[in-house]
């Protein structure tokens, strides 16, 4: 009797997969086992590091050399760095030449705007708390990077 109950209650994995139960977790587990995904993450980090340097340099120049308000400097720095990052991510990180570049650019900028919105809020909160502006910008960018990576990988440059 207990064997019958066990077999009727347990649902085979393949049956759960057909219904969509457990798919996200299984996809994440499968994706973490692929070396290619880890290499993409490293390349994304390298591109991000170059964008990080570009962003901070433009931000610091805007705030300290040109006297631009830090909030406007953050927007200008974002625009410059996102152009840099799009080119490198499209051609090197994801080698995503299968889609039209304009379509990819639209998706890339939409994800980047969402990530920027998050980093902008973090920046303003840190500056309002008394942190130095360039340091606050550096921390805010790092805080938004995981959000950007997930969006770019799963939507902008999906295979």
What is the first-to-last residue Cα distance?
A: 49 Å
Which stretches are poorly predicted, pLDDT < 50 over at least 5 residues? none
Give the mean pLDDT.
83
Count of alpha and pi helical runs: 7
Structure classification: mainly alpha
Whole-number total of structural domains? 2
Determine the oligomeric state from the structure: single chain
Helix content: over 70%
Could you say which overall geometry the principal axes of the C-alpha atoms support? Answer: globular
Largest sheet: none
Q: Percent of residues in beta strands?
A: under 5%
| Strand segment count | 0
Taking Cα atoms only, what radius of gyration do you get, to the nearest Å?
21 Å
Which sequence of SSEs, written as H and E, runs from N to C? Answer: HHHHHHH
Short description:
The chain is mainly alpha-helical and 159 residues long. The protein has helices spanning 2-9, 13-19, 23-32, 35-65, 70-93, 101-128, 133-156.
Structure commentary:
- There is one protein chain.
- With 159 residues, this protein is mainly α.
- It has 2 domains: 1-33, no CATH class; 39-156, no CATH class.
- Helices cover 83% and strands 0% of the residues.
- It is built from 7 helices and no strands.
- It has helices at residues 2-9, 13-19, 23-32, 35-65, 70-93, 101-128, 133-156.
- The longest helix has 31 residues, at 35-65.
- The radius of gyration is 21 Å and the shape is globular.
- The termini are far apart.
